[in-house]
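Lab notebook, bench 4. The sequencing result for the construct came back, and we need a structural model before the next group meeting so we can plan mutations. Quick request posted to the team channel:

Model the 3D structure of this chain.
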Amino acid sequence: MRHLPAISLLALSVGLAQAEPVQLQDSTVLGQQQSDPTAPTLAEKRAELARIPGGATLVDAETYKSGRSSTLQDALGLAPGVFVQPRFGAEEARLSIRGSGLQRTFHQRGILLLQDGVPINLADGSGDFQAIEPLALEHIEVLRGANAWRYGAANLGGAINFVTPNGHTAAPVDLRFEGGSFGYRRLFGALAEDFGAWDAYLSVSDSAQDGFREHAEQANQRYFANLGGRLNERLATRFYLTHVETDSELPGNLSKAQLRDDPEQAAAGSLSGDNKRDFGLNRIGNLTSLELGNGHRLELASYYSEKALWHPIFQVLDVNSEDYGLRLTHKWANAEGWRWQAGVEAAQGRNWDSRYRNVDGHAGRKLNELHQTARNLNLFSELEVPLAERWALLGGLTWLHQQREVDDRLQCNAFVSAFCLAQDESFAKTYQGRVARLGLRHELSDGLQLFANLSQSFEPPTFSELSGGAIVSENQAQQADTLELGLRLNREHLALDLALYRSQIRDELIGYSDPNNPTSVVTTNAERTVHQGVELGAEWRLAQFVLRGQYLLNDFRFDDDPAYGDNRIAGVPSQFLKGEALWQQGGWYTGPTFEWVPVHYAADHAESLYADGYAIWGLKGGYRPSEGLGFFIEGRNLADKTYVATTGVVADAHGEDAALFLPGDGRGLYAGLEWRL
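Done. Here's the predicted structure in token form:
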């Protein structure tokens, strides 16, 4: 909304009162504000995602801001196809779509993370959850698998785009406080201003928690800003600034016996080594759009970021990173339904990875120094062709050329701490792939859409899958062929998002660790694996009641593997259900929440050690007006269930209990106040 100064309104009123009456002819004036391509509205984004013949979901941030909004699980827990479980009630989590990065409970891979369409992943493909503030978002795009090609993603999991508010749509002032169990507190403030052709948004957040477990304190400060608008009728640009300071203690994994005895305890090694993951991040991004006429448009996304990581674990990792890149896309559409987009993406990242002996959380003798460089050059294209009334065909091609280089400056094995085990881990590898996609969309009457697509994916290893010796550095790129079928239904009282998929994967990057030393993770290629499943999201409205949630069926298996046969790949339950049922009226709401894992699942690929299934429930309620003062109260895990939220993964636990389990939070009560102008 554009705000006029009060003095201008007063002068206008006086002038009208003193003017002579003038007889005017009746007339109708129609006006329409020109859309800003750097800040599309929710309606525009929903229409855009509805054209994708595959799994694509938009999460309105208003749906999760009705309760505690702290972690990615708070924001994405109800998004179809997304499995996300915090490690210890904090922001590091296991994040997976269609089995991407299954063994990673930290520093995710397999999914392209973006903010406002600009990548926040490092150039090697890894990413940090702590770079995102859930309260500073307007909506989230979840593009599963090959449905993320519009952002140049060709991996198995797809992309998640976190979209911040802007001065046109956000409240001019938004102040919020959250607090509750385990020492949790969060202060958030945001300002927005609409200057007409330009607008600005600024948010500041400060959060901390003592944590459910010992040695699980966390503190974060995040600053986000964007400024943009139209330079003229054809050219629009928007700049994004980010500064993040995040400090996290790591309580570590427990055995099942330890978890049953005291789920709040920390692992002994995490205490003695004062395990932490602290980093600072500075990032600048830009999105510029140029209208060329006749439906043609150029879009340029660019970014630069620098990160400093201090990470005492089995060693002290001191890593400084610098990443920059750009993506240039040509887009075209006409009134007949033809649509085209093609682009080129280039990125480079450099890491200075210094490793020291961990002496009570402090850096001791230097053990190794690795200089890592990742370079990417990707070309992508996509064409949508209207076949007949209500039918459309979509085809795409992508070419990828990615390089990974490591210069070992000390030439000691990076995972041996007691002495220098002479080993030169330097290498240079190039990964080159060509992948294609074909999709079909059919619009039926009354809001029903059917879709199908056949796609390929190509995913080179990150440095975490390449460091650790000559054998590991030989890891190949992971490739897959995926078939997807599904439907979308959008009616007044019912919305459904259903997808069934099957991925046949070659050289899947499988990670595992030694049960006696879970911090030492080794990644190898599994020759053949299969990922298949069902992704279902639903929202049903009946009078003042709304029921929303998601169901996941995950069937991820080895395929005639020499060691594991057709065993399930460890780390993720085969079924997962999460939802809420709320009564809503005039801004007021109340109702139960629930999360259910009805099956046990293996923590090792040999299927000898299992995490138990669980069911937890909670209640929340509050008042959330569009303006003025609102509040919420939320109780979680009200039955105080002791349960395993997620697990580490080993190759073979030999049926013996091992420190692989991460307990979920116990009973918690949270409350919040928010004032919006």
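The mean pLDDT is 90.
Will bring this to the meeting.
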